[in-house]
Amino acid sequence: MFKLIQFLLIFLASALFPTSAHAEEKLVSDIAGYQKALKSVEAGDTIVLENGTWTDFEILFEGQGTETQPITLKAQTAGKVIISGQSNLRLAGKHLIVSGLVFKDGYTPTSAVISFRKNKDELANHSRVTEVVIDGFNNPERYENESWVMMYGQYNRFDHNHIANKKTKGVTMAVRLNTPESQENYHRIDNNYFGPRQILGSNGGETLRVGTSHYSLTDSYTTVENNYFDRCDGELEIISNKAGKNRFIGNVFYQSRGTLTMRHGNDTLVENNVFFGNGADHTGGIRVINKRQTIRNNYLEGLAGYRFGGALVVMNGVPNSKINRYHQVEDSIIENNTLVNSDHIQLAAGSDFERSAVPIRTRFNNNLIVSKDQRDPFTIYDDVSGIAFDSNVINASVDEQIKAGFVQTSLTMGKADNGLQYPSPYPESSEIDKDIGVSSALSPIEKSATGVNWYAKPAESATFDHGRVVRVKPGLDTLADALKEAKDGDVLSLRAGQYAVSRILFLDKAITIKATKASKPVEISFERGALFEIQDGGNLKLSGLTITGEQSPDSAGNSVIRTQRRSMLSNYRLEIEDTRVIDLDINHSFNFLSVSKGTFADEIKITNSEFKNITGAILSLDKEADDLGIYNAEYVIIRDSSFDSVQGDLVDFYRGGTDESTFGPHFELIGTELNNVGQGKRNKSKSSMVLHGVQVSNIHSNTIKNSLPLRVNHTVGEPVTRITKNAFTDTPELVIQELYSDKTDTAELSDNRYLNSK
Ligand code: CA
To answer: What pTM, to 2 d.p., does this model score?
Structure first.
């Protein structure tokens, strides 16, 4: 009966309004067909892209739909229309809907993959992009600045999209307010899956930015709700809010390095968000700057970040700040948040000669702060009398200045059905306000409720050793042959004997090469200028081997391992354990590792290994010499190893520039012996090791003999440098320079001994 009425109504409508109501569905199978269909498109029409791969398709989707009769562009089957090659999507007009497309295996020729405008004058309004995938749609040049989604216009919605694996420089998604037509926009960004974004190693790795400093005093009214941010590690801002009256509600941040930063703009609401750090390095929470900010009912657990990357950071401002500096925190509210096992809450953070305006007229109440080890997470950098503390509960002792606003009590926490921890049982104390911490009604969005259900969300997996074990026999190029057949995660297990390699071994997958038995020697020699070249997607682990340079060509500048010559999108890992590297000395400047500009290692780790007779450097990580804040590796770790007669540097680690957008680089040297390192006449640094702009260094319990000095150059940020319990024999004192700051003695130096045997 209902169907009949519906039919009659439609029939009646089409009889009365024959042109506008005759919604057409046009299936198109090529680009010319699409363009033809677009020319005659009317309100209510749908253009359907036939399933298959569309290559080099710059989609301009423009039209004038109406609220009840939008114009739709969709895939014949959601997920079965692949847009590849040199492709992008622009929307212009109103009441447009795009859905079901997958952007992969290509990149945009312009500065955006999806843009809510045709050009600077023709924008999209009241339009929606939903159930679209952008996966690894990266320009092959890592530092070519590009964004994936640019929102312009007003009243647009971006929802249920899957956006993952951005590896190039540039914010993943931005809301622009650059003309009045894009301000007070009331956009909605909801239920999206923002998948993994690897460490960029430079500024420009934000996942979402709303506004820019230039328009930051303009209101945006953008709502960012129920999105899932999964391992968004690009740089120290996951979200950078830079405009007024935005709302960030109900989002989940899963093991993401960085913070939701209220960098500019006032009247922001940050409510019902959940952060799970899992104790991972630099996982942070919420950073508060500017006026009338509300931070309410957020749950933050297992966040290890510190300084500006802490779980909760309230900044100092600059008096009469310029628009692009730090505005004072005023009239803000921080209430009913729960922080569990999160390491750092920073108040009046960034206090210095310039940032001297302390937070004022701000409330901090009904927050619950607990940690397993009953540790006080607060660091207070300046006068915090402008923050009123009231009815907070903590299971640690806190600073005298703020103590009156806390009830200190021991608490047992239990996990509730929503996956969050609450006091269990609730402490019966008359002093405790029952309304502390997050509400029991807070219900974090499930990962599966974001993005699309027809495109897999990337799992967390180990880089190495998850494939087959392949036995390899000694001989000429047996290793090269085995590698050709190997798949990602495979282990090449080498029987004892001599392996000669006549060609460069190219790696575009994760491979482990190990001795079958640790006690039986495996010796590898090679005849080209490099034994291994790590290419995009490559990762290498060496275990229990001896590598000699004695068969290498008699020319300068060989390497055991190098990265591909051109820029590389994917970060790589290099692990060396229980390995001997000897006689890289057939000619000068023979390095163990040489990298190219535009390449980036997540981690380089050398453990329990021995290096001897080397005419170049061990780790040459100094190819980003433009001082743009770019560098070559995030973590370099050397433990329990020895380096003997190395003419170049043990490590030449360079991070230039003055911006503070990266957490790294990090360096660790522990339990290691250096003898005769750095003395080669070609070693320009005149040192055994250079750490320039490294943010975290730990040099501990090493023995350094007959070597040139260690050199540490502090540049920006507040680098953490610990040099402790090292013994220096016949080695000049280490040199620490503060290059751009007037601070002195910021390094922790203790228990270092200097001996002179001569
Ligand atoms: Ca940034």
So the answer is: 0.95
